[in-house]
């Protein structure tokens, strides 16, 4: 069956590109729906969804925007209107993929729109800035970024090839027939946070949950991963949490690589979801550096290089207390329905007995602070085990299952 690809574009500057994309999509047997998110210039071709209709859906008539037009004022209105129209079309099964074109401003607007669309819905952004740091554009949604290489400013032989590839990708994604939806079950989908230093334990947890009839989604706890896990909690996709990795909290205290943001570790408590918490990877930081270069501020810290450009310093006792304080403060929203397990023999591969960053004094300070400040509604359990030990992982997983089955 033919699918419909929505094209997000400013037709005052990218009319040729939009027309070419439309032809490419239709040549593959699918339909194109051009949405004009421009405001000021004259559209070079006719849109299927006009800028007037998008502005109206955004809550402000276009004529009012044009009375004193600025990008700062117009952008949010066109984004809001596009989101409203696309969400309706997606719900009605009338749009099956979205494809955006843009430079810096266009990429910002298109990606803001895409970030509001459902997980699993195909989203492709052809952008002049897709070769750099795209984290602010992608956020925590599954947006595919395609670097245009040349500027997106009228057609040429190379641009035609890039746009042809983008059209083919959008049509292919729309035609897969695969839909992201949780299978009907009386068992909730479990979210698991993970880091490389505790992956063996995570695999054991996955296998144990699967054996008990539960499906899981694992998130790499590098900032975006933890935030995505919590967004899926908000959207009702994830119904229980095995929060096995807390490196995002340590990095957030120092605002470095894996920083999870101020909301991290608060959402499950606010929603009352069953959760089991373990401080995996919370004893070190991840810091981007020039290859194999030790930052001046950490020359007095034990350290390793996780990769040539990811520097990993071991936190000392005082710094570990700061991490514990942040963890406990975030968990104030959790008033029950939760266990916190302390693995006294180490919270990750670097700090286990014999590990490169083993430091029992620092560990002891961290554990003592957690015990002192953890909210009373959370059940604290200490185990003389390493975080990846089979017995530890199995007990933690079974505790989460017990919380789920009490609901």
From TrEMBL:
The lineage of its organism: Bacteria, Pseudomonadati, Bacteroidota, Flavobacteriia, Flavobacteriales. It comes from Sediminicola luteus. Residues 3-176, 187-403 form the UPF0261 domain. This is Uncharacterized protein. NCBIfam families: PRK02399.1-2 (NF002674).
